[in-house]
Write a structure and sequence with these properties.
Elements: H1 13-32, E1 39-47, H2 57-77, H3 84-87, E2 92-99, E3 105-109, E4 115-118, E5 123-131, H4 133-141, E6 144-145, E7 155-162, H5 167-171, E8 183-185
Antiparallel strand pairs: 1-5, 1-7, 2-5, 2-8, 3-4, 6-7
Length: 190
């Protein structure tokens, strides 16, 4: 007798195919970006737990919105005042919710050298950043682990690495579960 150990992994075929269509559209969009103007990065952010609260997708998205719009973006562009010309300099960002196992990680050490362990919340973000030339050097300087912690007290871990457009399939792998929770920044039409 076959059993499924995690019923949340059962995906309706119709939902999965709609998600794949959206993923393909995002992939095509990223592939069409001029490589002389855009550099792609993959940013993963996990969030600190608070007591025994389970954050909803909406609350988790708000963590990312506050981190990006109120802290990171003003730092990248050196302003909190927005004009059309400043908006045209900002990176294009697609941010997707993801679930993960809650494994404890070391966040600090006690005086005796033993690690202080904490578990990040289940929901986290995978973001694809299409950086324009005005911000690419800043992103390049933040490659690696935990370089975004100063931008938000809610972020537990971060990881930034260069990527190609194919990363959209990994970043959006839970799109079937969170289809209405995709965050998009920096998309402008002339």
């Amino acid at each position: 007798m076959n059993t499924i150990s995690n019923p949340s992994l059962i995906v309706p075929a119709q939902s999965k195919s709609k998600s794949r269509i959206v993923q393909d559209a995002y992939h095509e969009y990223l592939m069409a970006l001029d490589p002389d103007e855009f550099t792609l990065f993959h940013l993963t952010t996990t969030y600190l737990p608070y007591q025994n609260i389970t954050y909803s997708p909406k609350v988790t998205n708000q963590f990312f919105i506050n981190f990006y719009l109120k802290n990171l973006l003003p730092d990248l562009l050196h302003t909190r005042t927005w004009s059309r010309s400043k908006k045209m300099l900002q990176p294009i960002v697609l941010s997707f919710l993801d679930d993960h196992k809650i494994d404890p990680i070391s966040v600090s050490t006690y005086a005796d050298g033993k690690p202080v362990l904490a578990s990040p919340v289940r929901l986290h973000h995978h973001s694809i950043v299409a950086s324009r030339p005005s911000t690419t050097n800043q992103f390049m300087s933040m490659l690696g682990d935990n370089t975004f912690l100063r931008y938000s007290g809610k972020i537990m871990t971060s990881n930034l690495k260069r990527c190609d457009a194919g990363i959209v399939y990994y970043a959006s792998k839970m799109l079937w579960k969170y289809p209405d929770e995709v965050l998009q920044f920096g998309f402008f039409q002339d």
